[in-house]
Amino acid sequence: MTPPASKRSKVDATLRRDYTVDMSDLLGRADEPVEAVKDTRPEWERYVELPQVSLNEDLLQWWQRHEDEFPQISKMAYQVLGCPACSSGVERLFSKAGRNYTKDRKSNSAESMGDILFATNLKAKKKKQLVA
Q1: 125: DSSP letter
Q2: Measured over all CA atoms, what is the biggest interatomic distance in the chain, rounded to whole angstroms?
Q3: 127 and 93 housed in the same domain
Q4: Are residues 93 and 126 in the same domain?
Q5: Position 69 in a domain
Q6: Are residues 125 and 93 in the same domain?
Q7: Are 90 and 97 in contact (CB under 8 A)?
Q8: Residue 91 and residue 111: Cα distance in Å, rounded?
Q9: In total, how many domains does the chain have?
Q10: Separation CA 118–CA 3 (nearest Å)
Q11: Whether 127 contacts 107, CB under 8 Å
């Protein structure tokens, strides 16, 4: 059942008054600074949309500048970019293994060779600590 026309107009006027919103309240005043809307998309979506970094740019510095924007991806980037570019540690290990693999020790198993290399490295570390 609908109310009579006289009551309907009073109800409509009340609703218009109560629910009418000043657009300046929604959009902000011209003299007030507008806050930036935070992008709620996942990090990887925002990262993929960025232009490619120049080959001349230092990647570690780029990630330092964008660390706040991409906190999770920057952690992974630091892990990858923090790896040494040379393999001298591995080469040293192979050299030590070659020196320990003599004709007298050729019958040793891989496990015992690993133990020998471990003991050799431990001995070298202790020697360095005593010298320092």
Answers
A1: H
A2: 113
A3: yes
A4: yes
A5: yes
A6: yes
A7: no
A8: 20
A9: 2
A10: 93
A11: no
For the record, the structure tokens of 19 come out as: 């629910």
E strand or H helix that includes residue 114: helix 110-131
Q: Write the Ramachandran bin of 28: left for phi over 0, alpha for psi from -120 to 50, otherwise beta.
A: left
| pLDDT at residue 62, rounded to an integer | 92
Separation between Cα atoms, residue 119 and residue 57, nearest integer Å = 43
Greater model confidence, 125 or 16? 125
Nearest to 45 by CA among 70, 76, 80: 70
Q: How does residue 120 score in pLDDT terms, banded at 50, 70 and 90?
A: confident
Q: Read off the amino acid at residue 14.
A: T
The whole domain housing 61 covers 55-85
Taking the whole predicted model, whether its pTM rises above 0.70 is answered as no
pLDDT at 80: 84
